């Protein structure tokens, strides 16, 4: 699998404390990857670095076939380069319908008012329908996002990110606060999304990670502690000591 994202020798300190310590790893094109690890392992900081929110003190972050350096690019430039990020808390426009939320996402970052002045083209309208079907909200297009359940809002936000067609989607704890049925549906959405793009999921819920059925990277103290299948990493004594055995 050819490399889409390469993080190499990256370190970041906050007030002298090394939150990320010589971190290196690669994500392949259209790869699903789970990132796990104890609180404070550096998972959020890793995503902050890749999305340009935090600048590393050392190391390289290279993107795409042409190994473009992401360091020095703004968050907006990195998003435009094809990296989408889903935070834990859904950030949909509650007063707008599912249809409008997806349409706004397709138009790009212009603000909620833009939908009032915009005449959607046929391609965008067709794509809204496809996206709604992909996230399982095909029957909810006219509903206000604020009326959706927690799980449905999370799916809508994933749909809004997919609307921008990222080549890499970073997803922070997608299963948090979900019912078992919602978790199952979330798995299906992410597995489908990973057929055509890379998806990196930060998650604590091991059952959820198992369902993703992908390579797992265990972070600890800002570096990779173990990597491989879930069975491989969960049998690793170091992983049990620092994470699972707690
Ligand atoms: P995780 O997401 O795995 O729980 P984080 O990336 O949030 O871990 O944090 C890694 C370490 O860096 C933690 O010890 C955290 O307290 C510290 N840290 C993260 N961001 C900051 C910051 N802005 N200022 C100071 N310390 C930070």
Quick structural summary:
The protein is of the alpha/beta class and 246 residues long.
Structure in words:
- The structure is a single chain.
- The chain has 246 residues and is of the alpha/beta class.
- It has one domain: 3-Layer(aba) Sandwich (Rossmann fold).
- Helix content is 35%, strand content 26%.
- The chain contains 9 helices and 10 strands.
- It has helices at 43-50, 75-81, 98-107, 122-134, 150-163, 180-193, 206-212, 230-234, 237-244, and strands at residues 3-14, 17-28, 32-36, 58-63, 68-69, 83-86, 168-172, 198-202, 215-220, 223-228.
- The strands form 2 sheets. Strands 6-7-8-3-9-10 form a 6-stranded mixed beta sheet, sandwiched between helices.
- Helix 3 packs across helix 4 (122-134), helix 3 packs parallel to helix 5 and helix 5 (150-163) runs parallel beside helix 6 (180-193).
- The longest helix has 14 residues, at 150-163.
- 38% of the residues are buried.
- The mean pLDDT is 93.
- Bound molecules: adenosine-5'-diphosphate.
The helix tally amounts to 9
Query: Major sheet: order of its strands?
Result: 6-7-8-3-9-10
> How helix-rich are the residues, as a percent range?
25-40%
User: In angstroms, what separates the terminal alpha carbons?
Assistant: 35 Å
Number of strands: 10
The helix-and-strand class reads alpha/beta
The biggest sheet, with number of strands, parallel, antiparallel or mixed sense and barrel status, is: 6 strands, mixed
Rg, alpha carbons:
18 Å
The arrangement of helices and strands along the chain is: EEEHEEHEHHHEHEHEEHH
CATH architecture: 3-Layer(aba) Sandwich
Q: Determine the mean pLDDT.
A: 93
Given the C-alpha coordinates, what overall shape results?
A: globular
Small molecules held by this entry? adenosine-5'-diphosphate
The total domain count is 1
| CATH class membership | Alpha Beta
CATH fold-level assignment: Rossmann fold
Pfam families: ABC_tran
GO molecular function, one term: ATP binding
Domain ABC transporter: 5-246
Keywords: ATP-binding, Nucleotide-binding, Transport
């Amino acid at each position: 699998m050819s490399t889409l994202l390469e993080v190499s020798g990256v370190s970041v300190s906050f007030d002298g404390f090394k939150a990320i310590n010589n971190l290196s790893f690669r994500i392949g094109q259209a790869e699903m990857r789970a990132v796990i690890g104890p609180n404070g392992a550096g998972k959020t900081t890793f995503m902050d670095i890749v999305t340009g929110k935090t600048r590393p003190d050392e190391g390289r972050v290279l993107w795409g076939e042409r190994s473009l350096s992401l360091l020095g690019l703004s968050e907006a430039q990195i998003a435009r380069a094809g990296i989408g990020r889903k935070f834990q808390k859904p950030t949909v426009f509650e007063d707008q319908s599912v249809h409008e939320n997806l349409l706004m996402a397709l138009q790009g970052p212009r603000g909620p008012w833009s939908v009032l002045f915009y005449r959607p083209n046929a391609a965008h309208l067709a794509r809204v329908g496809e996206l709604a079907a992909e996230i399982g909200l095909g029957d909810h297009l006219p509903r206000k996002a604020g009326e959706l359940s927690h799980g449905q809002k999370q799916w809508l936000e994933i749909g809004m990110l997919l609307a921008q067609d990222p080549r890499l989607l970073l997803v922070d704890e997608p299963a948090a606060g979900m019912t078992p049925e919602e978790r199952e549906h979330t798995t299906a959405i992410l597995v489908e999304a990973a057929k055509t793009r890379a998806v990196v999921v930060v998650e604590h819920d091991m059952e959820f990670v198992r369902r993703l059925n992908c390579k797992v990277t265990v972070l600890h103290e800002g570096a990779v502690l173990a990597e491989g299948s879930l069975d491989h990493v969960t049998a690793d004594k170091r992983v049990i000591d620092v994470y699972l055995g707690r």
